[in-house]
Amino acid sequence: MHGYAYVVAGWLVLVGALGIVRSRHLVHAIVSLSVVQSGTYVFLLAVGYQWNVPAPIFTSRSAVTRAVVDPVVQAMTLTDIVVSAMVTALLLALAVQIEKTHGTVDPDRLRALRG
Amino acid sequence: MTRTVRLVVFGLGGAALAVLFALALLRMPPFGTADHPYRDLAVAAAAAHQTGNAVSSVNFDVRGLDTLGEEIILLGSVVGAATLLRPARDESERREPRGGRVLDSTALLCWVLLAVTTLIGIDVVVHGHLTPGGGFQGGVVLATGLHLLYLAGSYPALRRLRPLSWYQWGEGVGAAGFAAIGVAGTVAGGAYLANVLPLGTLGHIASAGTVPLLSLAVGVAVTCGTVVLLAQFLTQELRITRRE
């Protein structure tokens, strides 16, 4: 069981990349990229994990203790999610424009550059 | 490159990556142990500034400058998507979209959920320094919650309740507010984004100094940015037609 989460992270990155390579639709490729990015979230959270400790949230009643999971990687995961959402939005906007100018969203049919 | 060649190339590259990743994992520190040096420093920093949510402390206090960068990425990508989705020369924008039909029960549920979601969103933004949440999470809840109006079948109501120019301003004001709080830190504390406000007591709403203010600024920017972004896609789908 130890380090199982790392294997899941690596698997998500590879299977997402395979999705991009085999894609026949640009939206499918963009969603596959989101799967790759999910692999990085799992990896970051796995790095900061500690068995049997709570989330890094303290209240006025609970004493501040170091026995919590790592808040630094959680903050990085949050940044990661925000940036990947923005990348997805931009790529989807590009896909809409490509459909308009080229009349197709199959990456294999997009050969020529056109203004 | 044909599909087969591409798959073979990917297979070789993917296999090599998998092997290297597995080798790297064998040398990693064991999973789930108590050995987290950055965690120890971050928790100490959160406690020193009376911030209940250590994740918010990292985002808005310890590495506030990174969050400003993230904020600017958000601004840039919203502007980029809006530019990409402008009506082209051979397209025109209709005033009103085609009408659709929605069940009354669906519409009622959406209006009820709109109120609930808006309250939850505000709660998540305002208590970002105390409980799980913060400006980014709450902002997304608020912005997507507003689009329940669209699900309720009322695109005109969505447009009335969502004067887009306000949200465009709001996004800029949120990002500028974040930067301005940083400048205030420079003036009062000698460092950009220094936490210069009174820190209060951990667990109280007025605690953690500048963290709740920065979280609020991010909340405003994310709400408005996401609304503007989704509006571009909705307009594209509903109101833009190609001129014959």
UniProtKB/TrEMBL annotation, chain A:
Family that this chain belongs to: Belongs to the CPA3 antiporters (TC 2.A.63) subunit C family.
PANTHER family (alphabetical): ANTIPORTER SUBUNIT MNHC2-RELATED (PTHR34583)
Stretches that traverse the bilayer: 6-23, 30-51, 71-94
Subcellular location(s) of the protein: Cell membrane
Upper lineage: Bacteria, Bacillati, Actinomycetota, Actinomycetes, Micromonosporales
GO cellular component, one term: plasma membrane
Protein name in UniProt: Multicomponent Na+:H+ antiporter subunit C
InterPro entries found in the cross-reference section: CPA3_antiporter_subunitC, NUOK/Mnh_C1-like
Organism: Actinocatenispora rupis
UniProtKB/TrEMBL annotation, chain B:
Pfam family, one: MnhB
Domain Na+/H+ antiporter MnhB subunit-related protein as annotated: residue spans: 110-227
Subcellular location(s) per record: Cell membrane
Record keywords: Cell membrane, Membrane, Transmembrane, Transmembrane helix
Transmembrane intervals: 68-85, 106-128, 134-152, 173-193, 213-234
GO cellular component: a single term: plasma membrane
Membrane topology: Multi-pass membrane protein
Top-level taxon in the UniProt lineage: Bacteria
Similarity comment: family membership: Belongs to the CPA3 antiporters (TC 2.A.63) subunit B family.
UniProt protein name: Na+/H+ antiporter MnhB subunit-related protein domain-containing protein
Source organism of the structure: Actinocatenispora rupis
Lineage start: Bacteria, Bacillati, Actinomycetota, Actinomycetes, Micromonosporales
